[in-house]
């Protein structure tokens, strides 16, 4: 197995997570009820409508930005860990 550069895997996963975050935010902004219904099907019986943010308290730009940055960083770290472990496990015979 060829070695991989962990930081490249991390950057790819971080960028992917950021794109998914932005697309999800747009879906929630444009189709709030439909997006909630869609993700409710993924929650294995958990009713996500119970944790929905009240309309009187909209998401601030700061909260949105922090969410974007934190998911990109978490994605980068997870991808870099994956790349490092892939290299480690690839050396096992």
Note down, in words, how this protein is organized.
The protein has 93 residues and is mainly α. It has a domain of 33 residues. Helix content is 69%, strand content 0%. The protein contains 3 helices and no strands. The chain is elongated.
Secondary structure elements and pairings:
Layout: H1 6-30, H2 32-40, H3 61-90
Low-confidence stretches: none
Strand content: under 5%
Mean pLDDT: 94
Question: How is the main sheet built?
Answer: none
Q: Which descriptors apply to this entry?
A:
93 residues; mainly alpha; 3 helices; 69% helix
Question: In short, what is this structure?
Answer:
The chain has a domain at 61-93.
């Amino acid at each position: 197995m060829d070695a991989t550069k962990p930081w490249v895997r991390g950057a790819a996963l971080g960028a992917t997570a950021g794109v998914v975050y932005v697309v999800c935010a747009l879906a929630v902004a444009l189709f709030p009820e439909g997006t909630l219904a869609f993700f409710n099907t993924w929650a294995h019986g958990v009713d996500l409508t119970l944790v929905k943010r009240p309309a009187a308290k909209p998401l601030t730009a700061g909260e949105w930005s922090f969410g974007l940055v934190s998911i990109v960083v978490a994605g980068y770290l997870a991808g870099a860990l994956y790349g490092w472990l892939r290299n480690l496990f690839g050396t096992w015979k």
